[in-house]
């Protein structure tokens, strides 16, 4: 059973602002956007130390700008949804939007590319560049 202690990383291909991330996550978790907290990693680390006001949140999310095949790394915390349901919701969301996602597929470097409601399994390619995500089918 999923608990509020769950954590997962996934990527968004398109460069978007934090408010757009909130809209996506509120759609995935079927809640209002005020139940989603989206912060850059640096701010999140400072705020999490206060441990205040998170009880009502459906999901806490940090983001990091990346290069390569994805523009943003999202790190989700404190959500109640199985990984399978989250994947299904991302697929459905992508069907009705212009967003593409990369979702972890295995414990090592497998990823599922989600675009226009379709999925493609592939691997993350190694790179020497910092904060760079490269995907190969």
Report a brief summary of the structure.
With 137 residues, the protein is an alpha+beta fold.
Question: Overview of this structure, please?
Answer:
Helices cover 23% and strands 36% of the residues. The chain is an alpha+beta fold and 137 residues long. A nine-stranded mixed beta sheet has the order 2-3-5-1-6-7-8-9-4. The model has no long low-confidence stretch (mean pLDDT 88).
Quick one: overall form?
globular
Q: Which stretches are low in confidence, meaning pLDDT under 50 for 5 or more residues running?
A: none
| SS strand fraction | 35-45%
Which percent bin holds the helix content? 10-25%
Element-level helix/strand string? EHEHEEEHEEEE
What is the β-strand count? Answer: 9
Q: What is the CA-based Rg, rounded? A: 15 Å
Structural class: alpha+beta
Number of helices: 3
Q: What distance lies between the first and last C-alpha atoms, to the nearest angstrom?
A: 32 Å
Mean pLDDT over all positions: 88
For the report, how would you describe the main beta sheet?
9 strands, mixed
Order of the strands making up the biggest sheet: 2-3-5-1-6-7-8-9-4
Features:
137 residues, 9 strands, 9-stranded mixed β-sheet, alpha+beta
What order do the helices and strands come in, and which of them pair?
Blueprint: E1 7-12, H1 18-28, E2 36-40, H2 41-48, E3 59-65, E4 67-68, E5 72-77, H3 83-95, E6 100-104, E7 110-115, E8 118-125, E9 132-136
Parallel strand pairs: 2-3, 4-9
Antiparallel strand pairs: 1-5, 1-6, 3-5, 6-7, 7-8, 8-9
